[in-house]
Amino acid sequence: MASQSPVVARPVVASPTKLASVATPASASTATATTAATTFDLGGGESLPVPADMAPLFSPYRLGGRFQLSNRIVYAPLTRMRATGTIPQPSAATYYAQRAVPGTLMISEGTNITSDALGYMNSPGLYLPEQLEAWKPVVKAVKDKGAVFFCQLWHTGRASHPDFQTGGRPPLSSSTRRITSPEYTVYTANGPQPYPAPRAATHEEIKQAVADYARAAKNAVEVAGFDGVEIHGANGYLIDQFIKDSINDRTDEYGGPIENRARFALEVVEAVCEAVGADRVGLRLSPFTGFLDALDSTPYATHTYLAEKLNAFGLAYLHMVEPRIVGIVESGNHADSLEPFRRAYQGTFIAAGGYKADSGAAAVASGHADLVAYGRWYLANPDFHKRALLHAPLNKYDRDTFYSSGMEGYLDYPTLEQLQQRQAAAAAAQN
Ligand SMILES: Cc1cc2nc3c(=O)[nH]c(=O)nc-3n(C[C@H](O)[C@H](O)[C@H](O)COP(=O)(O)O)c2cc1C
Known about the structure:
Belongs to the NADH:flavin oxidoreductase/NADH oxidase family. The protein is an alpha/beta fold.
């Protein structure tokens, strides 16, 4: 069983993967789609015909004016806790390269922007020279395969513990409200602990945190070699702790009305854009998830405001998690929809959560999203693109190894070819 769970703490609530209600294509979108290719280049000299139903998912896409993608599949950010301390390991290069396909956007696991940002053991960092050195071969392995690699910038805020903090102080948040739901615990070297009461950030600490995001972005792009960064504003972590009014009870200009609760997120976006250029910056938000007790009383109003404000920056993309997802499990209110945000946001829109190839293709075809991020199924199927093209069955994902420390469930999910070889070897052994 996984010893730590950054985004999972509940059993799966069985629910069919279903397409969220669809929007008309964003007419104001700056993104341009071109016609679908008839064959798709999987890399390594292999290409396959694109079946008609998969054509939307395998159509090229210009991302933010800078990156030419060959398809609409995105590798979702997935924490795997295989770093040693905060140093990414060579196994990460193998893991990401196994899943890298030319012209595919991949987003890294959440990566800590400072030591105080950390809330999960063995999650990597972006603030020490040795971390950046260790990222270089990982990034190179992905880029050598022709994929586009963004690093997810992570500050866990109150989802941390004094054991991880400088001087053992309480972790940073928008307020002193702690995570109280009993299903959420923080794992330290002393085992599982209840989440502590955080400290409400002072104005200096807010300024510092904004600067920390910008510095981490520069480190990611200029030192480690990532193509861009995704600011993690989702799933109940620091930025979400400012956005959501179930957490943020401030009475200054960072709390209260939506404009104030959005201020920190927008300051981070601005600083990160200044640091690396807006066309290398994405933002992830989860309007509806209650993960880590992060709920908002007016998710539509709050996130529409944000989406509209983001139009001014010319970001690479806005990435949103479907309402059916709470952290990493399907649950929640299926009546809600990302549609209003898709309409309010004029740039590239990525939807994530509960998608398989067919529902992702339908989401692109209908204009619900420009790109679709895949988490669990792509994690468990390094040749996800190929399986989609062949309508091949998928390996099941193993929840127990999502966050475990070994290579099992990390490097050993088989490709179709490996499965066939195993079957052939088993058949030969029987004869
Ligand atoms: C093992 C695991 C780790 C995850 N880590 C992150 C993370 O670091 N950052 C993030 O924004 N979301 C994270 N998520 C959420 C996924 O990006 C995604 O939103 C979620 O799995 C739903 O998509 P899916 O149905 O395609 O799996 C994680 C999910 C899983 C399964």
